[in-house]
Amino acid sequence: MVRNHFGRLEEVDLRAGWLDEARDFTPWLAQTENLEILGDALGMELEPVSTEQGVGPYKADILARDPATNTYVLIENQLEKTDHSHLGQIITYSAGLEAKTIVWIARRFTDEHRAALDWLNQISEESLNFFGIEVELWRIGDSSPAPRFNVVSKPNEWTKSIHASRQPSELTDSQGIQLEYWSGFNEYLESVCSKLKPRKPYPQNWIAYGIGKSGFTLAAKIHQREKWIDVEIWVGGQHKNEYFQQIKENFEQVAAEKLNPHIEWIYRPERIDHLIRLVRPMTDPADTSEWHEQFEWIENNLKMFREFFSPIIKSLNVNEGGD
């Protein structure tokens, strides 16, 4: 009989991994790959924007962006248990930065501060979300410590909204189909255990994901009247012109060979972003009998776009005097 040997999980003191909150933990968390770990716990994607972001005479730890809504996410950190000072800070900073999602991270939440976040979520409008996160470090034997983020407070409707599929009476017929479509796409992602995380569905014709750099967005879009679906990369931001030209000049031919020869490169100087897109024509998003096939096409191409373009986008750089 073969006996399995398993290691034993041991909790590690946070200070063994990060001696100082400002000098160690905040720079670590602000890295894209570590924001992805936090995003997995939150059920959303996060793109880094800045650290020590000025808010009047104060500084917020991390400012990130939610690519699905193009709104700011404030992240405030503590390596100790929560206190009143940081509760005041998250309210002050979120107001100053107009952040729509506020994430308070601490070693431990007191019952009073957890209740305070629950209350803020109850009285706030739907677009404003407060999260309380407890951070831990664990290891097995002599392995390197691994972080774990535990959600202890979240918006009341957060989990429900990710699976939302009902059509509110105030929506148009087109918006109702859009909401049902993206809700169905979320269910498809879960059914196939996709690496793409479900996004909160909205009654709009697109759904968005991060791709590793601020100003860039990976998206899928549907068009009911013209009957097509597509996957896109939005190239925006201060250096959008240089970035788009760099990618196009260096990778257009490679993308055609490795991904699809029908990828379109659309330079739009009059718009806020340029497009890299792949269209599936003659596809009706309103035909529910085709949804499984459409969802499969969208998921496959989103994953291919991310795997191919994300390393390229992360490596982009321009001279300070450019654009």
From TrEMBL:
It comes from the Archaea. Signal peptide: none annotated. It holds the Pfam family DUF4268. One of its GO terms (molecular function) is nucleic acid binding. Residues 177-312 form the DUF4268 domain. This is DUF4268 domain-containing protein. It comes from Methanoculleus bourgensis (strain ATCC 43281 / DSM 3045 / OCM 15 / MS2) (Methanogenium bourgense). The lineage of its organism: Archaea, Methanobacteriati, Methanobacteriota, Stenosarchaea group, Methanomicrobia.
